[in-house]
Amino acid sequence: MLVQQILKSKGNDGVITIKPGTRVSEAAQILAERRIGGLVVSSDGETAEGILSERDIVRSLAVRGANCMQETVDEMMTRNPVCCTRQDSSDAVLTRMTDGRFRHMPVVEDGKLVGIVTIGDVVKARLQELAMEKSALEGMIMGH
Ligand code: AMP
């Protein structure tokens, strides 16, 4: 399965981005309200300059304390996130996420952000694919 099929099945919700100068406290509010675990950081809404994960916030809180909530997201984000394209396979994306130990991957086309996939999206798509393969194989074995 390709990333473009995963994006299609998610619907065309667009990607929630925040500007580098946004305070971490505001980013945390957006994460909570939208019930998501990561935000793409972008000045123009098109270039993925960084990614801020709930894990980045939790780690900073543990190491530096509550003052980190007043920092701007560009001080805490991971710069130059690993991205994929619509043509990448779900297996390739899953491997990169597993090897890199992250759960979010911006999808870019010609340097522009066109979507985001999470490890949850990819696992869900793979499970659906495996269920379809299983029922096709069962059909072949049973002869219908
Ligand atoms: P996550 O598991 O995606 O919530 O994030 C775990 C860590 O990896 C955090 O430090 C994130 O900033 C970072 N991270 C998340 N997504 C990516 C990505 N696509 N490329 C590089 N780092 C990432």
From TrEMBL:
UniProt-listed Enzyme Commission number(s): 5.3.1.13
Cross-referenced InterPro entries: CBS_dom, CBS_dom_sf, CBSX3_CBS_dom, Diverse_CBS-Domain
Database matches in Pfam families: CBS
UniProt domain CBS: residue ranges: 8-71, 77-132
Transmembrane segments: none
Coiled coil: none
Keywords: CBS domain, Isomerase, Kinase, Transferase
MF terms in GO: arabinose-5-phosphate isomerase activity; kinase activity
UniProt key word Kinase: yes
Identification of the protein by name: Arabinose 5-phosphate isomerase KdsD
